Amino acid sequence: AVQRKYSVATMGADGIGPEVVDASVQVMEKLVELDGSFQLAFENFDWSSDLYKKTGKYIPDGGLDALKKHDAILFGAVGAPDVPDHISLWGLRLAICQPFQQYANVRPTKIFRGTSSPLRKAEHGDLDWVIIRENSEGEYAGQGGRSHRGQPWETATEVAIFSRHGVERIMRFAFQSAQKRPRKLLTVVTKSNAQRNGMVLWDEVASEVAKDFPDVEWDKMLVDAMTCRMVLDPKSLDTIVATNLHADILSDLAAALAGSIGIAPTSNLDPTRQNPSMFEPIHGSAFDITGKGVANPVATFWTASEMLTWLGEEEAAKKMMDAVEAVTERGIATRDLGGSAGTKEVTDAVCQELDKMY
Ligand code: NAI
Ligand code: MG
After folding, report:
1. Residue 248 CA: which ligand is closest?
2. Which reaction does it catalyse (predicted)?
3. Is 58 exposed, middle or buried (0-12, 13-18, 19+ CB in 10 A)?
4. Which atom of ligand 1 is nearest to the CA of 81?
5. Which protein residue's CA is at the shortest distance from atom 1 of ligand 1?
């Protein structure tokens, strides 16, 4: 008998977003059918740049209340060639993350079986990281302004804000995440030599929180030196925590080092579980390949698997990832991974692997 049921809001939004979200729904429906112990009810939301261009709003009135009723949100990507990126990002993605207090952004990266890293010496198993990005403060909190527009003396500020509350909750989450992984190893990234206020607060809070996690080994890195360590000594890293801005950049580097931006997922979590969390691939709407049927759906498969884990369906989530890796191992891959398969071929192949597993 089916006991567990989850409602998932799907929102492909722009560009390849709907293509990869639809592919993931197909795989999850297969998984649910085979597993039989839980159900997923999908509701699609058409919030996108098209809707914005028609109505002037990304989120219709009362929309967030409707969204909040769901257990999780599976998001594609937002961004259109004819809408400035800061309008689309703040209009949709951040307009969900911020009120829903999704303060922890989690970005795992690894080298899949059958794929290769651009790092000559790194193989499957050598690079297996989780980057934890603070998702509500720093330079992305929206503090700042512009004065004297258009004048030669025009001034703009982008103020980085760090609250003890905000730093402590992400640090605690990071130590907990490190503690759950086999190596129990955390690297705290800052820039506390040059940024002598906010980043020094990060260092201090890290030392305080560390006392509650004696079994977690941890170290500190400056963000510039961290880029070198990621490239030169990937095996020395496991769980990583950094600010909104620093981790945004480091996680794109991480995705590239693992082989492609087309495989990396991200979770925007409200660890208090008062609001639904939102799951998305880290890539954007990729206008250059939209509608061509070549988008790599793997990032969104991994994303969906992360979502299932968060909902409590660890076993099914793991099966989904095993199926995805079985497919990459067989060499069925899109162009970004050096293959020649399309979105549909990869999706069908993952469904076939699932069939074999049950
Ligand atoms: P992008 O991630 O959309 O594309 C970068 C490059 O990677 C492109 O060559 C693209 O074809 C390729 N790529 C991305 N995802 C792929 C996939 N699944 N399979 C195969 N190839 C893939 O980043 P870009 O071009 O900087 O941004 C395009 C738009 O997306 C912009 O409007 C940007 O603001 C938005 N964006 C939105 C994000 C979000 O919704 N969270 C994140 C990043 C960008
Ligand atoms: Mg980014």
Report:
1. 2
2. (R)-malate + NAD(+) = pyruvate + CO2 + NADH
3. buried
4. 32
5. 284
Nearest CA, atom 41, ligand 1: 77
C-alpha 283 – ligand 1 centre gap (Å): 5
Residues 6+ apart with CB under 8 A from 299: 20, 261, 262, 263, 264, 265, 281, 282, 283
In three-state secondary structure terms, 237 is: coil
Q: How far apart are CA 227 and CA 222, in angstroms?
A: 9
Find the residues whose C-beta lies inside 6 A of ligand 1. 16, 20, 77-79, 85, 93, 261-262, 280, 283-286, 288-289, 295-296, 299, 334, 336
Q: Which residue segments constitute the domains of the chain, with CATH numbers given?
A: 1-103+265-358 (3.40.718.10), 117-143+157-258 (3.40.718.10)
| Mean pLDDT, rounded, of the chain | 96
Ligand nearest to the CA of 264: 1
Q: How far is the CA of 262 from the centre of ligand 2 (A)?
A: 13
Question: Which tens digits make up the pLDDT trace of 6-64?
Answer: 999 999 999 999 999 999 999 999 999 999 999 999 999 999 999 999 999 999 999 99
Contacts for 324 with CB less than 8 Å, ≥ 6 apart: 112, 298, 301, 302, 305, 350, 353
Q: Is the ipTM of this complex over 0.95?
A: yes
CB 4 within 8 A of CB 314: no
